[in-house]
Amino acid sequence: MKAELKWAGNKAYAYTTNSGFEGFLDGAAKDSDDAKGPSPMEMILCGLGGCTSYDVVNILKKSRQDIVDCKTELEAERADTVPSVFTKIHIHFTVSGRNLKESQVERAVKLSAEKYCSASLMLERGGVEITHSHTIVELP
């Protein structure tokens, strides 16, 4: 896996991934109206969300659950001192579908957190406290 970043002025960097995706990261995202993209820490949070969401949906599909949608919300706390690393992250899944079993959703979240999500495991090993919750929305 590779990525390349090129300074795009001020606090912004254009990135290209080895899979051909391009975008911008911008350290000014939180304090500028002309920011070109999310901050690097926001991207880490989104990466975690994508990693664990992929796992949960995939595990539920393999468990033959009739999943229609999965929304994942993440809320993070950061240290007050530099480096202002993540200290706590809470992940909440809203899983929608038909006849979803509570036990299967709990199992999927747990398996992602403890076995499959490399982003989650890496952050936890780095000292980040990660908690999880979920809601099931029953569809007709």
UniProtKB/TrEMBL annotation:
InterPro entries: KH_dom-like_a/b, OsmC/Ohr_fam, OsmC/Ohrsf
A Pfam entry, by short name: OsmC
Taxonomic superkingdom: Bacteria
PANTHER family linked: PROTEIN YHFA (PTHR34352:SF1)
Record protein name field: OsmC family protein
